[in-house]
Amino acid sequence: MEYECILIERDGPVGIITFNRPQQLNALSTPLIREICLAMEAFDQDPETRVIIVTGGEKVFAAGADIKELAEATPFSERMQERFAFRDRINGISKPVIAAVSGFAFGGACELAMSCDIIIASETARFGQLEINLGIIPGSGGTQRLTRTVGKYKTMEMVLTGDIISAAEAERRGLVNKVVPVELLMEEAKNMASKIAAKPPLAVKMAKEAILKAANAPLDEGMEFERKSFCLLLSSEDKKEGMSAFIEKRKPEFKGK
User: Fold this and answer.
1) Is 142 a catalytic residue?
2) Model confidence at 78, in pLDDT bands (50, 70, 90)?
3) CA dihedral in degrees (150, 191, 211, 144; nearest 10)?
4) Which is catalytic among the residues 15, 108, 142, 242?
5) Which of 62, 111, 188, 242 is catalytic?
6) Tens digit of pLDDT for each residue in 11-24?
7) CA triple 39-127-124, angle to 5 deg
8) Which of 168, 192, 244, 245: disulfide with 252, CB 3.0–4.6 Å?
């Protein structure tokens, strides 16, 4: 498939999606969200791809929603419903997704980064939920994911004031995994992706599912889900290979079976 708003590439087992609307600071228009979703799903279905990286490049991740488009939206407009539908599909990606964030990640862009599984930020990254300044609130998970990540009080502060926080502050609050110099951003994201890609794919997939369950379900329900996933993996070929390799003191060769 040919894309107009993004660039895609493969680096071994890592699929990379780069937003490509530089004149609009990668503002998240509906066409851009659609293409991000379709590219993620394509990589998710590709057996050769084990981890996905999304990035906006060194200068800006994304400035947020496309305000000109949003200004014309109504609660039941077809385009708004389409945006929500593609956002929901992005949330359903089964393979690990790493956000490599540099520069602005405001509003919907902050929410997009939070929908990923790991966030690597450059020292220039800035995060914020600025919707309050436009007379609205976050609509793609900002109030929910941020609360689960940094807690009620810090979320209240960010959402109600529209304040912007630095990459260092985001790391202190637990919003990002690691902060690196801007020139090392993609190298660090690829290193993380390669480390995960070397692990058994079935176990990675089930681990992601279990962690997401922990974030969204009561403890008892999450524990039951984890236990079932653990037991299912006991019958996998990767489990046999991993344990045999450990006993035989050799490097395992995982096949995702």
Assistant:
1) no
2) low
3) 30
4) 108
5) 111
6) 999 999 999 999 89
7) 90
8) 245
